[in-house]
Amino acid sequence: MSQAQGRVARVLVDTPLSHLDRPFDYAVPEELSGDVVAGCRVKVRFAGRLVDGFVLDLAEQSAHDGTLAPVAKVVSSEPVLTPEIARLARLVADRYAGTVADVLRLAIPPRHARAEVHPPGESTPPRDPGLASWHPYLHGAAFVEALTAGRSPRAVFNPLPRHDPERSVAEAVAAVVRTGRGAVVCVPDVRDVQRWDAVFTEVLGPGVHAVLTAAERPAARYRSFLRVSRGEVRVVLGTRGAAYAPVRDLGLVVVWDDGDDLHAEPRAPYPHTREVLLTRAHDTGAAVLLAGYARTAEAQSLVDQGWCGEVVADQPTRRREWPLVDVTDGTEHGAAPARLPSAVFTAIRAADGPVLVQVPRRGYRSALSCDRCRTPVSCLRCHGPVVQHRADQPLVCRWCASTVADWACRTCGGTRLRSPVVGQLRTAEEFAASFPDRTILTSGGDRVLDRVDREGAPLVLATPGAEPPVDGGYEVVVLLDTWLMLARDDVRVVEESHRRWFNALALAAYGGRAIAVGDGAVLQGLVRADPAGVAARELADRAETHLPPVGRVATVEGPEDVIAHLAGRSWPPFVDVLGPVPTEPGRDRLILRVPRREGAALARALNQLAAERSAAKESPVRIQIDPVAF
Ligand SMILES: [Zn+2]
Ligand SMILES: [Zn+2]
């Protein structure tokens, strides 16, 4: 240990190089000593270049032998990296086999100098909105009373339709803030943020929360970030980047609709909002609320492990509050126009109020399935999805590239494959012709309606996820062609389809009805209004296929020679190596699957791999842990 002259700054350097993913010591020159503070942005010489960095902390001495290079410049003395977020960045980087620099790029918005000029403002206490919206739920009152008492309960929350989950969350947030703690609430997209923002303002009062989304202009976004980092606000509402907001004394983290793909970060190291917030809650001891109309297998797993409790309505209440769902198999079209099943046609004709029709999009890659029972065809070796590139070619696994000879259905023993069917796309024109007295509105693609007016009882055709709410709810909700959604070749297809269906059904009016076109056996979860039951079955399926959250999966993508080399590397014995399989010309993918208890070891092995490649100046490979689709 050498005695450094003056103070030493430990700096997290913004470098893409995995093998240099650790803090580096720099001397603080006398003339900068007043400006360098823990958490501030600096510039330092690194590998011969001037690069950005954050000061992790300051010390009197360095463990480094020899003379330290000086901090070259202080970009700003504003402390933007708090110790908690620095720790979180390390945990998230380790979980996802990434680097701290990559996580910090997601966590801290770019600087906007003028925003720092604003003097810090006063913090505003929230109103006391009460906790009444939690009373309809089993354990609802207990959950919020625990928050009020300063404890940190954890729960999976499945709200009832029309019971304003935004309001329930705002009430829980108010309870936490009144104990002197803060809260972070993440929702999937900017449209959700707008709706939740209005409710938060109404329930908490103005000025209590800040909104953080990537859609804001840089100056506004940085200004909001500073209000949080300076402690002016303790409540943050936003999209996935808000998960890292440096809220002080964090008391509660909330994720709404954690099954939505938008919670999966598309930039390295590809973390998921739910995992980031659970990591944060684990680290800080904050309360947890995973809320949504549907439930993911991941949330169910937390309930099964006893880490989260459940806040749900009892079965009679759910039956009463969710619309009654009739299932029609859609085989009898009768004389109904627009190729609609006659039950659907009749129900729409009979409705006086607004009607919502969810129309699945076409163009998904369809999965192969058994002609008799429609069970998806899966690989005998790894349970991966199976494709057939041409009729005269054998079936081949998309994960491990095994060929499947003499396929027989694991469920019914059938040997005939169902040919992938292209869905019928029913057009707005067809509906207009069939229901000439109704106003037809469409929502989807790049024209998504935020809300529709009840007046004129519109018939709204919406693609999944684009269903607009209507005041008072829809009299009839139709889920068309559910089999088309389920035929998608995607490991999470059952969970994702149910999420889309529950979210659409939640828009029904009290006493409204719903018709789902599909297989009654498959749609029992909707008929029973039982998102927990759907999640439990999904979790059992994941156990069988060793998929997350029961197992942990990593995909490694890169040039085919690199991936071929990695496939032959000696992996720890617990790693199930699947592939390589081509993803695009010249590029291959390897899938690595391990039991959950080995997840950290797998991440370390992949981190090591990335570091070796970076040190050897080899091109990086794309490493994703627990990707939502593969
Ligand atoms: Zn079968
Ligand atoms: Zn396979």
Characterise the protein shown here.
The chain is an alpha/beta fold. 29% of the residues lie in helices and 22% in strands. It is built from 18 helices and 27 strands. The protein has a seven-stranded parallel beta sheet with strand order 8-9-7-10-11-6-12, with helices on both faces. It has a six-stranded parallel beta sheet with strand order 13-23-22-14-21-20, with helices on both faces. Strands 2-1-4-3-5 form a five-stranded antiparallel beta sheet, with no helix packed on it. It is globular and about 85 Å long. The two termini are 48 Å apart. The model is unreliable at 1-5 (pLDDT under 50). The site of one zinc ion has 8 residues, from loops. One zinc ion is lined by residues 370, 372-373, 375, 409, 411-412, 414.
Feature tags:
18 helices, 630 residues, six-stranded parallel β-sheet, binds zinc ion, disordered N terminus, seven-stranded parallel β-sheet, alpha/beta, single chain
How would you briefly describe this protein structure?
This protein has 630 residues and is of the alpha/beta class.
Our Rg estimate from Cα atoms comes to 27 Å
State the helicity in percent bands: 25-40%
- Which geometry do the CA atoms define? globular
Assembly classification: single chain
Span of the ends, CA to CA: 48 Å
Number of helices: 18
The proportion of residues in beta strands is 15-25%
Question: What does the main sheet amount to?
Answer: 7 strands, parallel
Task: Give me the count of strands.
Answer: 27
Lateral strand order in the biggest sheet: 8-9-7-10-11-6-12
**Which consecutive residue ranges, at least 5 long each, have pLDDT under 50?**
1-5
Q: How would you state the average pLDDT, rounded? A: 92
* Ligand kinds: zinc ion
